[in-house]
Each structure stands twice: as C-alpha cells, then as structure tokens.
Amino acid sequence: MHEYTYGRRTLKVRRRSVLVSAVIMFIGIGSLILARHPAMRSLGEITILGMFVVVVMAHFLPEWLFGLLTMKRGRLREMPVTLLRFGRTVCAFSFLILSVMVVTPIAFMLFLGRRREWKERWLHGVIYRFSNFVIRRVPGVSFTLDNGVGETFDRPAVMISNHQSHLDLMCLLMLTPKIVVITNEWAWRNPVYGALIRRAEYVPAAEGIENYMPQLRSLVERGYSILVFPEGTRSEDSRIQRFHKGAFHLAETMGLDLLPVCLHGVGHVLPKRELMLRPGRITVTVGRRVSPDDTSFGAASRERTRAFNRFYREWYAELSCKLEDAAYWMPLVRHQYRYKGVEAQRLCRRTFREMDRWREVVESISKENEYYVMSETGQGERALLTALLHPEIRIKAVMNNPELYDVARNNPAVPSNLTFELMENG
C-alpha cells in the first residue's frame, strides 16, 4: 500500500527482515527436531511449519492479492478493482451469458425446419428487446438516447458508428430490430453468442463482404439496415481512429443512405483492455441521414471516408465538451485514492465536499488556453479533474507538500497533459 500510494518501494526491505528472522528461527527451533524427546521434536516441527507459512505469506501473498486489485499485466490499473465494481460486473455479465444460453437453444430448435420470415423477425425482435433491456440497466451506469433528428429507422441504410467497447453492439442493436451487423472473426467464432449471430444472418467481414452481396441485398429488400464500424477495431482511448472505406463503398454500391451514430462514454464504462465495469454515463446520439445524392461529404467512397472521419472527430469533440463535466470524471478521480490509506481517502472526500467552491472555476477555464498553472492544496484531485476536463490544455499543478506531491504524481490516471511541480520551501 505504501508503494502504491507514494511510489516508493519498501516491501523488499520488509521481506528481508522477515527472511532474516525466519532463518534465525529455523536455526534455533530446528535444533529441537534433532532432540530425542517426542514433545520437543513435535514442537520444533510445528514451529518450523508455521514459520514457513509466515515466510510464504510475507513474500508472496500480500503483493499477489494487492496486485490483483491494482495492477494488470504489470501496469497500474487506471481504476482499481473494488468489491462494488466486481459485483456489478459479475451481475451484468452473468445475466448476459444466462440470456444467451436460454435464447440460443430456442433459436436452434426454431430454425430446424425451413427458414421463414416470421422466424427471422422473432429472433431480431428478441435481440432488440434484450439489448434495450440490458443497456438501460447496466449497474452503476446511466443511459441516454439522443434522437433529436427524429430518425424512425424505417428505411434501410448503412449505419456507421465509432467503436469503443464490447457494449457498443448492444447500444446500436437497441435502436431497431431491423439491423444486421458486419462482424469480425472474433465475434463470428465467439463460443458464447457466435451461434446466435450466425442465426441472425450477420455477415463475417473476414470472409469478404463481396461474397455475401446476394444475402445483403435480400436483407435490404426486407427492410434491414447494415451496421458497420468504419474504424474496424475498438479505440483504446475512445478517440476516433482512422476510417476504412468498406462501409462507404458498400453504401455506394447498394445505393443506400449513410446513417451516422455517435457513441460517447462506452469506452470509459468498459475500456478495451478491461473486463471490469466502471461507473459512468453512456450517450447514443443519432445523426441525420446522408443520401447517395448528397455531395456535402463528397461523391466517391474515398472522399466520403475522409470527410466522415473528419466529421466524426469534430462531432465526438463537440459531444465530449458538452457531456464531460466535473461530475462525469468524479468516479475516476475518486478511485485514484482507493487503497491509499484512510487519510488519503478522507482528504479526497473532504476535497469533493468543497467542490461547489471550485467546480465552476475549473469548468469555466477557456478552451483557448494552451497552458494553465494552478495551485494544488490537496493531493492532486482538483488538478487531475481539471486535466481530464481540458485534455487540450497543458496543466501544471504547483504543490508545497512533499508527501501529497508523491501521492498526486503516483496516480495511474494522470493524463499526459498534466504535470506536478513541487515548490521548495524557503
């Protein structure tokens, strides 16, 4: 805990002390084993066994257990595991797996005979209602659907979206039952829900979309939209990555509208490298359709790819500015002080109780600033929150307490635009 709090390694010194004590004990008590008296021999054996357990626990158990909570693959977790986070994750994924296990055999038996249109509608309706139910009830997460354009999803289109998390698919499948997805190889072969998505007529991108054009045309004629993630893979930091032209070429070839949807907060609730849910807010925003005749994004698929990539970056930045207030980042900042001792957590709570006094100042910093210097009287809470709120501004936090300075700079979620500086007294 001391190392996690201050970044100063002390466990080796304590291990060495325990090891020296153990060696002395082994030598002293171990001589009793050589004694011929049964009671003395028994005492020596029990004592050595107990000391062996103590040594093992001192050397491996504390670091291993603490590492499970605070580290992953040799790096500090941005948000350490807590009992509440673990419980929420287990509940959410247990419900997901159980639901898939119930629906999959039903769908299998249903499709044993001839494929019928009503069977397809039933399966897509189940997926739609299930996604709607789950995504609105993710523990510790609020959900908002912004359909200000009044989209009814009654006409087929190539639906495109940014890609952040495993939850993205449910955020989009809950919009309408009339969606089929261009999936990657991992999802297509997934042992949990792979069979289900194959029954739902989803299309594997790895085998080449051109091989499935007759199927896609048939689906479009039946009123289904085609969902494609132009980025191709999930973003690690939720930022918009480079777009591939497949979705735009597909829309051009089939003469379909492009229907943009932007996801925000999904990558913060369930980041790419984690399987543990975080508290947060998810927002799904539906954009206006772009018809094949609309040249505002270019005429050819290559032009549209670049234009939509720029559009999504601006759109996501606008949504981030609107949705990411101080309350949005508070759970992440609070979790930086978990497992850092009672005093660190008490100081963190006190800082946020006084939040009304400084929240407006933090949120009102002009976006035109390139550099901002602030005095940090706590242990980095305000500076961290400011840096997360204003990723485009370089923040320097000046501190005068060496202990709190070590706590602040050792937070794993400190972004690249934040630096701490210790002011020397005198």
Structure characterization notes:
This protein is of the alpha/beta class and 426 residues long. It has three domains: 2-59; 83-323, Glycerol-3-phosphate (1)-acyltransferase, CATH 3.40.1130; 333-422, 3-Layer(aba) Sandwich (Rossmann fold). Helices cover 50% and strands 13% of the residues. The chain has helices spanning 2-6, 11-30, 38-59, 61-70, 83-110, 117-135, 168-173, 185-188, 194-199, 213-221, 246-254, 266-269, 301-323, 326-335, 342-353, 355-363, 381-389, 402-409, and strands spanning 71-72, 75-76, 141-146, 157-161, 179-183, 203-204, 225-228, 257-264, 280-286, 371-375, 394-399, 418-422. The strands form three sheets. A seven-stranded mixed sheet has the order 3-9-8-4-7-5-6. Strand 11 (394-399), helix 18 and strand 12 (418-422) form a beta-alpha-beta unit. The model has no long low-confidence stretch (mean pLDDT 87).
